[in-house]
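=== RUN LOG ===
request id: a7f3
mode: sequence -> structure
chains: 1
length: 183
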Amino acid sequence: MKIIKVVLAVFLVMVISEMKAQDFEIGKVSIKELSENFHPQDTTATATILTKKARTFYSYNLKNGFTVNHEYWYRIKIYKKEGLGWANFQVPYYVGYEDLNNESVKLSNAVTYNLENGTVVKTKLNNEGSFKENVNEYWSQATIAMPNVKVGSVIEFKYILKSENIVKLLGGKCLLIHCCFLQ
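=== RESULT ===
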């Protein structure tokens, strides 16, 4: 009985407590982030991921059963002209299942932030900046090309990778490694 109480107490502490590794509020880019001209720890950096927040959760429906959802938020700062390539982000996903529905990627909340005359200016991604393409018979790729990106910009976006393959808990950039070996 004492073991059950200890396990229950540990479980409650884990559920109730909120771990805060990074101070990251979605959609709230600071003037300090935008006015930064170089990375404080690496002055040679062309761009840096300021924040990458991820979570995995499961959903269920009667028709398809369980689906695993990998949700990612990115905030990236562009420091130099050579870092502008970070504004084009690719997410590979698997489409070669025989007995499951294909994985899917949903991109959203993509915004470029710039500092103009001391004011934060937002440019939202429109439909023309996101597209999907087949890589081969097993893989497809979702791509976003962020708008109005220049040196000093901060870009922010979210994507959700959905899969019925609940055994394989890989998502986002981890899949890129597999994609490269299959080509």
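=== NOTES ===
DSSP finds three helices and eight strands in the chain.
Confidence is low (pLDDT under 50) at residues 17-22, 170-183.
=== END ===
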